[in-house]
Amino acid sequence: MATSAHEHGARAGTDTPRTGQRCRRASGYGLTALVVAGLVMTGMPSVATAQTAGTAQQSPAATATTPTPGGETTTDTPALVTGLEEKADASATPATAARGYLKSRKARFHIADPATTLKAAGTESADGQEVVRLQQQYQGVDVLGGEYVVRMEKSGGRRTVTGTSGKYYTDLDLDTVTPAVSEKVAVQRAVAAVAGTPGGMLRKDTPEALTSFSGESQGVAILPQGDGVLTRHITVTGVDADGMPVRQEVYVDGAGGFPVLQYSAIKTFGAPDGDPAAAAAGSASTAEAPEAALSSTPGSVVGTGIRYDGETVDLGLYQAGADKPFQMLDYTRRAEDKPFEGPLIKTYDAHGAEAAYASGVWPSQATIGESATADLGQEFTDSGMVDAHWAAGQVYDYYKDTFGRAGLDGRDGFINSIVGVTSNGGPYNNAFWDGQKMVYGQGGGDFRTFSADTDVVGHEMTHGVVEHTANLVYVGQSGAMNEAVADYFGNAIDLEAGGVSMDDPDAALLGEDLCTTAAPRDCALRDLNDGATTFADFVGAGISGDNGGVHLNSTIFSGSLWDVRERLGSELADQIVYRALSAYMTPLDDFLDGRAAVVAAAKELGATKAQLKIVNGAFDAHGIVAGWEKTLGVDSDLLIADVNVGDTGVGAGGGRYAVSRSNEDGSMPYSVWVGRTDGKGRPELVSGNNGNFNVYADTDGTTVVWAEYTGTQIDIWSRAVAGGLPKRVVFSHNGPVGSLAVDGDLAVRTVTDYTTGTQHVGWVNLKTGASGLVDPGTPAVSTALPSVKDGKIAYAKLWYTVDGPQLGVEVFDTVAGTKTLMPMDNATVMGIGQTAVTDDGVVWIEDTDITDAGQAAVRKASFDGSTPVTLAPEAADGALYPYSLTASGTAVTVTSIPPATTWANATLPKLFQVPADGTKGAQRVSCSRGEQMFAAADEGSRVLWLDGTTSHTNLVKRDRPVGRC
What is the rounded CA–CA span in Å between residue 487 and residue 494? Predict the structure, then answer.
């Protein structure tokens, strides 16, 4: 193979969102998604990758009154049962009564011992209705997404069960729930999975990635694929190379120590934004909100403030004494005779703290908003504090008055907001919910503070409501539904607070009031009434791309909900959606499950046949019907469907490919298979299938190399495709390993030091056993992104002199024993990306302008550094945004990821190809929708990649570029 496409990471640059924000790919670590509903581990965790694959497709328009399996092979427990009126124990607690009922109906629910396998996860009771959520456990270990809901009514001393829903996995069968992998190793590998490399490029200004993150064990969890996958759950926090906050939930296989799933716990309003340059180190206080001193003497007062739009509004404030300042602590919704019961709305000023240090913690400089008078001045308007404080009250009132809900958690827990966070001292044009509080960007330039639009506040606070009800996992379709519900209620609250009719032409816009100059329709991030967003517009995205499409595909579901609201009216529609969320949906629901929940809630609330027809018609119109994925077309040739792996790459060369695969439901560890790139014949297993994870395979057509993850170390294997060298371990390491590539007798890889994050390119002669590093192996030199061909190894190199950091592309001729630096202006070069050795020279990615929108050049030179040529310029119309590249002797294929302020198909990774002689401009390789990643060049123009268009991860190829799309 001429180059390796297994090295991925973030790029740094200006305040335009860059690749790295959406493509935190792992160097040496493949990240799969168990993405939802049947929980098939799929790669490129696309929104429906697993959500459709493992779920029984009963008609979503019909709610089951008799048991219906909730998964094709994963459970015998019905996913949805309605129309019941069966007795339950009225004297017991709701959870005990629910478990007792399920035990008494074992033939229906197939739950052998609810008392030991279902843990109480929360009960909501109102007006005689009880919703009990039960968390599935297997031998005392939580099953991710295994949650079963029992709906009951209690009145007159009698309790009846009216229905159930959710997922209880009956096929789990594990030998042990004690992971062989130690907690220490799991944390190390989880951190490495999140950190990836210090950039998709080696950069002068990139901090060492591994040292920017820390991991904390959350215990053991079971992923419900097949018989079950035992994992260690690790939460990784830190700051990425773009200066953005990171909080990733990572699940590391308990046997092989391979990170099989990760997703973000930070729920943003829109696309990532902010200055991508690495943030300076900051400090943070504890994870709890700084508590203002409370006086036993009531000090609640009503003051005023001016919103960003000029409206004067009342604000609940607190004054501890006559000579004390007025604080933004709102107790006004508490009864006078119960001053310590009820909601407390608190609003803090971040004073420009970095957004990266406001996730899950409180910046040390954050203070409660304080004013000398009860009439807040202009500075409180400009900072967004007035809007955030006032709108938080509007959201609370909406949920309380409409549904009787006591705050985000249903128990009147504190409602915390913090405004004025920045990104590298500049605008942070976004907002997010971090599980504790709402965080709003300071705004600037084209954007106001992000609390200036009530639908943003409603959206972020609704994430809190979702977290305390269905807790939809923030990845794939369940994550898109999480976003959709937040959008729906954020919009509903905004309309009610503003007195705007559903008939208003801009009523369905979200974020329309955030811009300083643009008109609402031009400013809005999403339009729930665009009338066009259906599953025909579905975009298959990986976890690294918008968390599996949580924003990209949310309007498919929220558009359906909007249509229901528009036709049924807000009063009934809001009740239906809230009931579906709070009483029917569970964490790993997909869009079809969501449709079934909404229809069932509508029936429960007494919708007429005509009204039910409207509800079903809305989902039909948006394509949320069984078999929707069959409508997605591609223009590539399929080599292997549903490889059920992710981020493990593809290798190709000499007419052969090498790729990792799992079984149909993704429950088995990965093995390496080799096949012909022309699609003829059948792929053959070349690695072990031994319970470990065999990943990052590459081949030159004669030899195959791959990494095998065990619980204690990572082994690099090689073997002949047919005959020749025997299968053997050629290298072992305990740190992150990536960029595996092989050609002839040479294999190369990048290893990373856990303590410093420094990378080094290593090589081994497969015939003689000789091995070494291309650099001294000290922290003063980093080498990465290698490629190999005909005895020559090319790599990116970062070293330090008295003049500061230096960057270059170096070629090590292992036969001659010489090293040659390629020509470049080191004063201007800021980043070097993937290299590729071709028949007559070296190709690489080169970035010299960090003030542009993220473009970079593709350069080439002869082995001795002569005849340099630019194959794709950095500054030109149609310039690419190179993230990685791969090359044959005649063609160079570039993975390009444009910057974006909103998620769209066009902003996902796409492949472009240029001739290796520079005689023609870049052409699109494929026009298929969805993510195109891990390109591997074979011979001529043929290129292979992992494609997420169809909602599954497929290995595909094209023999020539399609040209234009």
Answer: 10
β-strands 437-441, 415-421 pairing: parallel
The pLDDT score that the predictor gives to residue 782 is: 92
Contact 548, 46 (CB under 8 A): yes
In this model, does residue 38 exceed pLDDT 60?
no
One-letter amino acid for residue 55 of the chain: T
Place of tokens 């405004």: 419
**Domain ranges within the chain, ordered by starting residue:** 75-166, 289-449
Burial 456-489 (b: 16+ CB within 10 A, else e): bbbbbbbbbbbbbbbbbbbbbbbbbbbbbbbbbb
For residue 226, which phi and psi values (nearest 5 degrees)? 55, -125
The class of domain 289-449 in CATH terms is: alpha beta
Rounded distance, CA 646 to CA 703, Å?
A: 23
Distances in Å between the alpha carbon of 191 and those of 272, 280, 754? 21, 20, 9
Residues with Cβ within 8 Å of residue 894, at least 6 apart in sequence: 845, 858, 872, 880, 882, 883, 884, 885, 911, 912, 913, 914, 922
Q: In whole angstroms, what is the distance from residue 531 CA to residue 525 CA?
A: 15
Q: Do domains 75-166 and 289-449 have the same CATH topology?
A: no
* Amino acid found at 138: Y
Mean per-residue pLDDT, 566-581:
97
CA atoms of 102 and 112, how far apart (whole Å) = 9
- Phi, psi angles (nearest 5°) of residue 556: -60, -45
Give the C-alpha separation, 168 to 604, whole Å.
23
The arrangement of secondary structure in 75-166, i.e. its CATH architecture, is Roll (3.10)
Q: Regarding beta strands 831-837 and 202-203, do their DSSP bridges make them parallel or antiparallel, or are they unpaired?
A: antiparallel
What letters, b where the CB count within 10 A reaches 16 and e where it falls short, cover 55-93? bbebebbebbeebbbbbeebbbbbbbbbebeeebeeeee
Residue where the block lists tokens 């300076």: 280
φ/ψ of 184, rounded to 5, equals -60, -50
Better-predicted residue by pLDDT, 333 or 71: 333
User: pLDDT, tens digit, for every residue of 641-692?
Assistant: 988 886 788 999 999 999 999 887 778 899 999 999 999 999 999 998 888 9
Query: Strands of 842-847's sheet, edge to edge?
Result: 202-203, 831-837, 842-847, 857-861, 869-872
3-state secondary structure string, 62-75?
Answer: CCCCCCCEEECCCE
Longest alpha-carbon distance in the chain: 92
Would you name the residues annotated as active-site residues?
A: 460, 551
What mean pLDDT comes out for the span 109-131? 95
Task: Report residue 61: phi and psi, to 5°.
Answer: -80, -15
CA separation for the pair 774, 48 (Å, rounded): 43
pLDDT of residue 33: 32
262 has which bridge partners? 250
Q: How far apart are CA 635 and CA 927, in angstroms?
A: 7
Three-state DSSP state, 587: coil
The Cα–Cα gap between 393 and 395 comes to 5
Rounded to an integer, the average pLDDT of 349-365 is: 88
- Measure the CA–CA gap between 66 and 86, rounded to whole angstroms: 13
Distances from the Cα of 46 to the Cαs of 50, 445, 479, 485, 488, in angstroms? 8, 34, 11, 20, 23
CB 796 within 8 A of CB 818: no
| Residues contacting residue 337 through CB under 8 Å, at least 6 positions apart | none
Q: Give the Cα separation of 762 and 770 in Å (integer).
A: 11
Per-residue pLDDT for 59 more than 60? Answer: no
pLDDT value at position 79? 95
Cα distance between residue 488 and residue 503, in whole Å: 16
Which of 934, 910, 260 lies closest to 645, judged by CA? 260
